[in-house]
Sequence to fold (608 residues):
Amino acid sequence: MRLKTTTRVSVSAIRLRYLYEVVAAGSMRAASDKLGVAPSSVSRQVAQLEEELGLPLIEKGRREIALTEAGEMAVRYYRHQISEEEAFLSELEDLRGLRKGTVVLALGEGFVGQPLSAVLHEFTSRYPDMRLKIRLGGTNEVLRLVAEDEAHLGMALETPVDPKIRVWKAVPQPIKAIVSAKHPLGRKKKVTLTDLARYRLALPPRNFRIRQLIAQAEQKEGVFLTPAITSNSLLILKNFAQFEEGVTLLPELASIAETQAGTLRSIPISNEALSQTQVQIVLRVRRQLPAGVMRLLHLLEGYL
Amino acid sequence: MRLKTTTRVSVSAIRLRYLYEVVAAGSMRAASDKLGVAPSSVSRQVAQLEEELGLPLIEKGRREIALTEAGEMAVRYYRHQISEEEAFLSELEDLRGLRKGTVVLALGEGFVGQPLSAVLHEFTSRYPDMRLKIRLGGTNEVLRLVAEDEAHLGMALETPVDPKIRVWKAVPQPIKAIVSAKHPLGRKKKVTLTDLARYRLALPPRNFRIRQLIAQAEQKEGVFLTPAITSNSLLILKNFAQFEEGVTLLPELASIAETQAGTLRSIPISNEALSQTQVQIVLRVRRQLPAGVMRLLHLLEGYL
DNA sequence: TTATCTGTTGCGTTAAACGCACATAAGCCT
DNA sequence: AGGCTTATGTGCGTTTAACGCAACAGATAA
Fold:
């Protein structure tokens, strides 16, 4: 698409302003006082505006200035323009003061459910006019959104390396065995994959990063886990552990509320691939982030 | 009333424009080509705009430029501003091309009725988007309107001298005796006040300039006319002459349609004050008139 | 990695706006 | 009518903003 190539005529803002001040002050001298410039300058600018527009704006040859019809139009236009500008600047002020704006946060599957609610609640209440968009998706989806500037921030588990992605912060987030308090494994300090294989398991589907990490561990140890149940809902997985005496494998964060309440326990797994996983906050390399996003970023950092 | 003294911040138009062209062209270099300036200038203006607004507008450090949220707002604002400016300029264009505008014409009492309709019709049809305001009033009212710029032009009978009023054109417009074709005076070439005193008369009220001129003539000749009927409606006066065999005294113009049709006759009066009256087109001294007004002025000149 | 785009910065140049001083014109007052 | 006051318009030298050129640095693609 080719844009117009017409040379823009652009009515000089300063000249319009001078005209307006002249009318408001009632004379060029008064206007020049208010503007802090010499009267000659005012006179010239108004004259040049008339030349630009090709029409007389003030009726000359009299003591008090009086606008012509074109002058009235010009002043009306200027006033309108000013009010629009003020609206624009005030909008900008909101943005500068972090009061407005949109932050898009992409979350990996590890966070599906009601995670982060404390952080997000703090953010939305501290900046009530900021809109927060949360996009959920698999780890790869998160990366794509961040790489293509469709999301400002991403949080996901064990993100693969990508030249366009910068890992801002990574914190250990081992995948643990989640069981109910009454479960036989509940008293153990550590479990092996072999231990787990003896119990009924609930696991996420194969396209989930968690499941891929589990697969890596299975490969390495030669032990293969067969889930009794597969679900992309973390809640279902957790319910399976809590009410059906089963076991599920999740990052600690995903069940932190229940472990703190005592209804579930999270047991470390003695496998490197699972115990050394990290949750990562990612953004696009060299991307300039709006201030609001930085705030959320810091909140998330503190949370992890 | 004191106006605001806040120093206006005024977002630079050129910088906004450069920003806009940059995003439209996709790069600063392309924009500089289109704008016909060096790329360095574009870069600087955009940087200065960012400084003025206190916010980054484009995300730096990448090949293709991308706007920040503030940048989006700025471009949106600029586009809006441009469309407003175009509307303004096009309005102005109308004005310049005489297609639009308002002309205020003040008419004295001698023109009440349906006079000038040919001229006014020609004017309104030739400049269909020009608005024509006609204010009717006594001669003094006409002069006040013109003196105080509430009317562009005035037409009245025998206007008194006034330093603020300039007589643009004056044409003789004697006050004549108006009678029906069958009236005894209808055959005379000239009548005196004494002649008139013998018939039933219809005259305008005393606050009309016509009546004041008649009074001057009465004073001078020592003959006093007693009207059978007094009315501020020229139509009533003329009807009195036409259907009730009476006489009325009016400027020739006021009954020109009827005299041409032959239903009324206008007889000169042998009195200096009445036979030498003039109708005058007046305007304020040194007033600059819009082009549209000049056109009407010339049309009126031609008519008289 | 190199080649070639991009945006940025330093510095001398051009053009717009300015201030000062003075000329000119309009309105007011006697 | 004529002087007096006050306001706008003009010539000219000065200041400031925008510019062009050239060199540099960062980023993408081969």
About this structure: Chain B touches chain A through 46 residues (CB under 8 Å). Chain B has twelve helices and ten strands.
